[in-house]
User: Fold this.
Amino acid sequence: MEILGICGSLRRESWNLKLLHREMEAFASLGHDTRIFDLAPVPMYHPDDEAARGIPPAAESLRRAIREADAIVVACPEYNSSMTSALKNALEWASRRGNVLQNRVFFVIGTGPGRSACARMHMHATYSLESEGAIVVHQPRVLLPTVTNFMAQDGSITDQSVTDLLAQAAESVIWTAERLSRK
Ligand SMILES: Cc1cc2nc3c(=O)[nH]c(=O)nc-3n(C[C@H](O)[C@H](O)[C@H](O)COP(=O)(O)O)c2cc1C
Assistant:
């Protein structure tokens, strides 16, 4: 299967990007193809620009990547008790002119240095995705507080239970995608 990763943080040293890499490795070890799409070049959604010039190339690339994936893993920090604007912007582009979120299998994960486990980010992202017809895998939860307790600066996982959780999550997403994904 084709597994797409999207990180809601644009920060080069993002903890969530590092976590996303580890989760994608769990899919790869099950024999699946993985790629990560960088949201940084995707412009802010602007209805007037869209009306005048259509969907810009970077947003169209994002839409194509979502359309072609069997499952999409989103890793996102919590910003202001919600998802980041980069992720919300991506979902706005994805939902326009032929909604590519419909019937796509998504899995939303998150981490950060604080004690919050990104639950509000997860709730808001899930609400937007499901409202647009996406199928969100809810178990197991990969919402992990206090990132330095289980990840080194280089992104390696230092806690075997987290490695096991990422493997279990990959199996759960594949199980769902095999049954429900409609490209
Ligand atoms: C604008 C902004 C808002 C934030 N809001 C929250 C928040 O509501 N809850 C929280 O736990 N952390 C919050 N943080 C801290 C981020 O979770 C933290 O910076 C995290 O490392 C960002 O993820 P990243 O490492 O993947 O870039 C916020 C950070 C920024 C820049």
